[in-house]
Amino acid sequence: MAFELTFAADAAQVLEDSIAYQGYFRMRRLTLRHRLFGGGWSEPLTREVFERGDAVGVLPYEPETDSVILVEQFRPGALRDPATPWMLELIAGVVEQGESDAEVAHREAAEEAACELSELLPIASYYPSAGACSEHVRLFCGRVTSAGVGGVHGAPGESEDILVHRLSRRDALELLAQDRIPNGHTLIALQWLQLQGDALRQRWGR
Residues 92, 76: contact at Cβ < 8 Å? Predict the structure, then answer.
């Protein structure tokens, strides 16, 4: 039996909408109400929502070597981590106005890893933290034709300092098993690879 959620979009109403903060990112202050499972409407609620735009992430896969391309970079949100605020991640970037997801994936692959992709397959789409953030993320796997492994890359003017790695599928999944992938988009993509890796390599050729 197919599962359906109880309420649709019209079961929530925004009563007031204002900008609480505008800097590198933006924070909106919303007053809203929503339908209740027991019937009727909630009392008006005031919530701040973090807005950073939607994002696309891509896991570049190289079928000839059964490897993935991952990038290493500093993340200020992980300064609290006792080990390191540097992370091993997918290639990813924010969707600019008018851009398709495919255009973002190819642009970010070139900027962050000097990586060229010939094909994209969808992995998943999700809200990383819907209780506080409006961001929606779409993940893809891309077939690698070339990559700047070992090089340091990043978009000019964006203060990016990104080191490019090639890891065998086995090594990448071993990091996953050891709980050494602490960021959500990479975690999801590698779990997908764990399930789909054999079929993926067969599809794109040995």
Answer: no
- CA dist 16 and 35 (Å) reads 17
Query: How far is the C-alpha of 107 from the C-alpha of 17, rounded, in Å?
Result: 33
Which residues in 112-198 belong to E strands, given as ranges? 116-126, 137-146, 152-153, 162-168
Give 126-136 pLDDT, tens digit per residue.
999 999 999 99
Q: Is 99 a catalytic residue?
A: no
CATH assignment, 55-204: 3.90.79.10
Catalytic pick among 72, 158, 160, 174: 158
Which token pair is 191?
A: 């779990």
Residue 102 near residue 95 (C-beta atoms within 8 A): no
* pLDDT tens digits, one per residue of 105-147: 999 999 999 999 999 999 999 999 999 999 999 999 999 999 9
Alpha-carbon span 89 to 78, nearest angstrom: 13
In the chain, domain spans: 9-51, 55-204
What amino acid is encoded at 188 in this protein?
I
With 70 as the cut, is the pLDDT of residue 48 above it? Answer: yes
Taken as a whole, the chain contains a residue count of 206
CA atoms within 13 A on the CB side of 90: 29
**Which residue has tokens 């094909």?**
119
Amino acid 24: pLDDT:
86
Strands 137-146 and 55-62: parallel
Mean pLDDT of the region 88-93: 96
